[in-house]
Specification:
16% strand; five-stranded antiparallel sheet; Alpha-Beta Plaits; alpha+beta; 6 helices
Length: 172
């Protein structure tokens, strides 16, 4: 018979899995308390929630949220980084942290309900921040307008130069 505390944990994790845009599963074994605290602080700054979970409870929650395929990553000590807003944030922070701390092992994750492996998590971490992507999109949208303005402006500018040249010829 499950205890009430375990039921609450499964309910909380089910909600997290249902609402998350991205979740990255890690094996934190080998990190000391200071390193885990540093990791949690970095994740918190990025708006990411980091939970150490029991695999059986996480699997129950994942099944409740229709993510049964996550079972392959639920082995050994497991902690999950959940992001409700930015699907890139947990991958970015964890991949950067894992570069400096080899003890942290990234297992895989979920993005918008799709299971991803370690290589896809690394690829996700390479995506530029949202603000940079928006700036790049706006620059691409602005380029055709600038081209049109220049194309319309060229004949007028050429006419002005021609009239100026004629005026200078007549003054001589």
């Amino acid at each position: 018979m499950p205890t009430r505390e375990k039921e609450l944990i499964v309910e909380e994790l089910t909600d997290k899995f249902s609402e998350t845009k991205a979740a990255v599963l890690t094996d934190y074994c080998g990190l000391d308390v200071a390193q885990v605290t540093e990791l949690r602080n970095q994740l918190r700054e990025a708006g990411v929630d980091y939970k150490v979970v029991k695999n059986t409870l996480a699997l129950l929650a994942a099944k409740n949220a229709d993510f049964e395929e996550i079972e392959e990553y639920l082995t050994g000590p497991t902690a999950i980084a959940f992001s409700d807003e930015d699907p890139v944030a947990p991958a970015k922070v964890l991949v950067e942290f894992a570069k400096e701390h080899e003890e942290l092992e990234i297992k895989g994750g979920l993005v918008e309900g799709d299971l991803i492996d370690l290589e896809q998590v690394k690829s996700l971490a390479d995506i530029p921040p949202r603000e940079v992507l928006i700036a790049q999109l706006l620059a691409k949208m602005k380029a055709p307008v600038n081209g049109l303005v220049n194309a319309l402006n060229d004949p007028l500018q050429s006419l002005a130069y021609t009239l100026k040249a004629i005026k200078e010829d007549k003054e001589e």
